[in-house]
Task: inverse folding
């Protein structure tokens, strides 16, 4: 029978579908990583190409086991004839792919994939892409086996498919590329509808918050202050992209609110302008500017220009509240005639910060207010002063501001304190910028007990990455234990630490956060304080 006759074609199709199901089951991580990379294939592939990537090693093992078993079974059962032998030789695909998928789920992603409709659609496109490619490969291999008249090739015809695991991440990116036009059209409609829903709230005060650091913290603080007088809706967690903000608006549909606060993130020029077109803020906050995301922006000038988009995006009769630093001072050159309210160290005094929180005197509108909060770090005073300036503009009193600060709780993953069995953990895992890192280390030093830091260094700093990580490493000198995670940035951190007089015996380097966590019990003693600073490079595995 000809290799392309209908019975064989149907067999090839069935084989391709089964294999597509199996390899899709082995592809949960690359598809989840793609989601966490903002569906940017280049970013996901850069992660996959990192040295000592565990997923790459796992795919190597899967491919090796498939090749060995396909070859071994093909030879062992060749006495049954070519047709029977090659079918038996294909059984390892079923066994090892299922085993891989089951075992892989035991090592869950640190940040689980969000079960969104988009991810489901991507899985579907990916499955069909695999099915088509596998059908073409299966048919081609069978045709070659038919005309080659080689028994050895015949029983090993599916062995080349054992190399497919290496191609799964790139194929995930290809599936994402295929789905992108549809997703972009859908996203535009979704965002446009969210804008309409927000515009329908005629009397709602809209506020945008951007900056290189402290966006979420200032949003958290401002929402608490305004809640003393208004019904407030603030975008949750770090929802700071157009889709994140739009999703928040859709989910909050029907609920009453007087004030809407949107956190606005940016990795490229134009991002803040796009978010302002959606939110159309009457008031805005620029928390501060540093080299965060310099890798994507390219230069500090571009970072400043990107953050400056908040001025033009704010209503002409509104105001922008600016946390003053050397970079926001430069950004004011692009103020577009907007009213600027400067907030600096003159807005507070007598700051005292320890392991129990922060207290200071707030100076506002010619009045003084004593502030006490559980939030850690001297920088908390500036964050509160910045939020208070806007809250006062909207009619909240100093007394209400002080009460709101007293009731504040830790912001998740931002100097969040967790205590258990005498050990204190400071979770600052969402902190990845130089300013925030300096504040976190200073906060750690204010605690009593053995001081330990677990960090991979600072990321996305472009040409300043080496210099910034060496300076960061120098700031760690004097801590009791320094646990470095990863393989790309830790060298610069260690060099800076040693150059500042750090003790090499106190430095511990681990390829992954999981290995570092396994080793921590041997370093921790009762009353120890462990700071987890920035887990982004290891966030996926």
Result:
């Amino acid at each position: 029978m000809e290799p392309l006759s209908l019975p064989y074609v149907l067999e090839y199709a069935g084989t391709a579908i089964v294999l597509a199901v199996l390899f899709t089951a082995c592809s949960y991580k690359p598809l989840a990583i793609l989601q966490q990379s903002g569906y940017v294939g280049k970013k996901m592939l850069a992660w996959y190409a990192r040295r000592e990537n565990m997923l790459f090693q796992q795919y190597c093992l899967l491919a090796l086991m498939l090749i060995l078993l396909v070859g071994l079974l093909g030879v062992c059962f060749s006495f049954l004839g070519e047709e029977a032998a090659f079918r038996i030789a294909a059984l390892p695909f079923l066994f090892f792919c299922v085993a891989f998928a089951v075992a892989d789920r035991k090592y869950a992603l640190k940040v689980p994939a969000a079960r969104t409709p988009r991810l489901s659609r991507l899985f579907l496109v990916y499955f069909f892409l695999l099915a088509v490619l596998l059908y073409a490969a299966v048919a081609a291999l069978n045709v070659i086996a038919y005309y080659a008249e080689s028994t050895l090739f015949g029983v090993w015809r599916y062995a080349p498919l054992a190399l497919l695991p290496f191609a799964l991440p790139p194929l995930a990116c290809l599936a994402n590329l295929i789905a992108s036009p549809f997703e972009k059209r859908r996203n535009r409609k979704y965002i446009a509808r969210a804008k309409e829903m927000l515009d329908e709230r005629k009397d709602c005060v809209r506020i945008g918050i951007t900056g290189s650091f402290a966006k979420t913290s200032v949003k958290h603080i401002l929402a608490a202050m305004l809640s003393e007088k208004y019904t407030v809706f603030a975008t949750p967690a770090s929802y700071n992209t157009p889709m994140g903000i739009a999703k928040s608006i859709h989910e909050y549909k029907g609920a009453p609110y007087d004030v809407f606060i949107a956190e606005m993130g940016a990795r490229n020029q134009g991002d803040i302008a796009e978010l302002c077109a959606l939110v159309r803020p009457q008031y805005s906050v620029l928390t501060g500017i540093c080299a965060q995301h310099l890798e994507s922006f390219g230069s500090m000038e571009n970072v400043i220009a990107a953050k400056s988009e908040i001025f033009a995006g704010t209503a002409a009769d509104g105001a922008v509240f600016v946390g003053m630093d050397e970079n926001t001072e430069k950004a004011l050159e692009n103020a577009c005639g907007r009213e600027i309210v400067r907030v600096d160290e003159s807005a507070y005094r007598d700051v005292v910060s320890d392991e129990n929180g922060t207290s200071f005197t707030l100076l506002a509108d010619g009045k003084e207010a004593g502030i006490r909060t559980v939030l850690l770090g001297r920088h908390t005073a500036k964050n509160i002063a910045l939020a208070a300036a806007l809250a006062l503009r909207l009619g909240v009193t100093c007394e209400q501001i002080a009460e709101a600060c007293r009731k504040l709780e830790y912001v998740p993953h931002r100097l969040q304190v967790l205590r258990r069995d005498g050990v204190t953990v400071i979770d600052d895992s969402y902190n990845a910028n130089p300013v925030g890192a300096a504040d976190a280390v200073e906060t750690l030093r204010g605690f009593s007990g053995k001081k330990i830091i677990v960090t991979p260094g600072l990321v996305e700093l472009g040409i300043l990455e080496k210099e910034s990580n060496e300076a960061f490493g120098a700031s760690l000198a004097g801590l009791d234990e320094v646990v470095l995670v990863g393989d790309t940035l830790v060298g610069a951190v260690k060099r800076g630490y040693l150059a500042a007089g750090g003790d090499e015996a106190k430095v511990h380097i681990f390829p992954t956060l999981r290995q570092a966590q396994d080793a921590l019990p041997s370093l921790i003693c009762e009353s120890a304080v462990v700071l987890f600073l920035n887990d982004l490079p290891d966030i996926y595995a």
